[in-house]
Amino acid sequence: MRWIKLGIFILLVLLGVYAVSMTFVDESKTFTVEKEIRYPVEKVFPQFANLQNFTRWNSFFSDNADLSFQYFSPYEGKGSALSYQDKNESSRFGDFFIRYENPLKTIRYQLFQGKNSTPYLIDVKFKPQNDHTRIIWYIHTPKQSLLKRSVNLLTEDYIADNIDKSMKNLYQLLGNKVDRETQRQNLKFDSLMVENQDSQLLLGINVTTKNAKDALFKNIVMSHNKVLNFVKMDMGKREDEFGEPVLITDADHFKDKEVSYFYGVPLPKKVGVSDNAFSFRTLNASKNYVIYYRGNYAGRVKAIQQLLQKAKKDTMRTGDLQQRFLEQPDTENETVMKLSIPVFR
Predict the structure, then answer these.
(1) What single-letter DSSP state applies at residue 334?
(2) Structural domain of residue 316, as residue ranges?
(3) Across the strands, what pairs with 317?
(4) Contact at 8 Å (CB) between 258 and 210?
């Protein structure tokens, strides 16, 4: 009995110390997070104003595959709303609202979590800077009771990390969507250029096939369909959630009787893959010699040789050849691709 009384006494002392210490912690927090993204505001803002877009890249929602959503009209702008519910965790649910919108300039959200009747207040401002956009998040957390204020010690770091991950997701999504549109409009074929390529994570398959007259291209079409079907159907990805398919192989492969290559598409992060035929491969950031090519698939050899000759002339070492298909490879006589060779000293 004496030990029980002692335990209760110690517990009460600890609770008292905790309660006193919490008097020095704010009942709510207000803080600011600033980010910049390399896309113009007219491309960025719709990703914030349309909640169906917002939940695809904001990691608070997108990181949990078990969340289900119900969207309410209007689906874009002031008055938009959604409800979310975790399929496996009944205590995780909430509502998210757009309360105010000044197009291309400001947007205001409210987030209600669970049974809490006091929301998070989130104001986001957009400041154009040439072809970039500076995004400023103003966060005001709900008031917490004295015994729950310890969560405020972690909230700012948690939300800042969440925003950082979200902006990386958004950059990847816009890269897949916007860059494709811009690239199509400004393609300059058959001219050798130098480009800096960011690192990419690819999901795809390894293949070895004969390098006969048309066997290689037919095999590439099969690989393309297999990868795209898996990413779209099995993984449920949309067109703007992955990048353009790329074939990676030895730059001199066209001389061989058999060709080994990796065919994959860029994804923002690693996920569990159920099919052992698929694997991840990382493309490191690099300086690339590039030629955009349009025409018969066999005719690409001349462009590849041009890239290799340029690298030799510049006394550069080369990496694997990347053949990025800008249009779906259906017909051998009508291919549109970006041929790239990483170069380094």
Answers:
(1) S
(2) 193-344
(3) 344
(4) yes
One domain for residues 51 and 166 = yes
pLDDT of 269 reads 82
φ/ψ of 20, rounded to 5, equals -65, -45
Could you count the other beta carbons within 10 Å of the beta carbon of residue 137?
19
Residues 214 and 128 in one domain: no
Residues 235 and 86 in one domain: no
Report the number of distinct structural domains present in the chain.
Answer: 2
Is the residue at 32 inside a domain? Answer: yes
Flag whether pLDDT at 185 surpasses 50.
yes
What value does the mean pLDDT of the chain take? Answer: 83
Q: At residue 134, what are phi and psi to the nearest 5 degrees?
A: -90, 130
Same-domain status, 158 and 229 = no
Q: Are residues 150 and 54 in the same domain?
A: yes
| pTM, 2 dp | 0.59
Alpha carbon of 321 to those of 142, 166, 256, 263: distances in Å?
53, 32, 15, 12
Between 145 and 255, the more confident residue is: 255
> Is residue 90 left, alpha or beta, with left meaning phi > 0 and alpha meaning psi from -120 to 50?
alpha
Q: Measuring CA to CA, which residue among 343, 342, 305, 306 is closest to residue 324?
A: 342
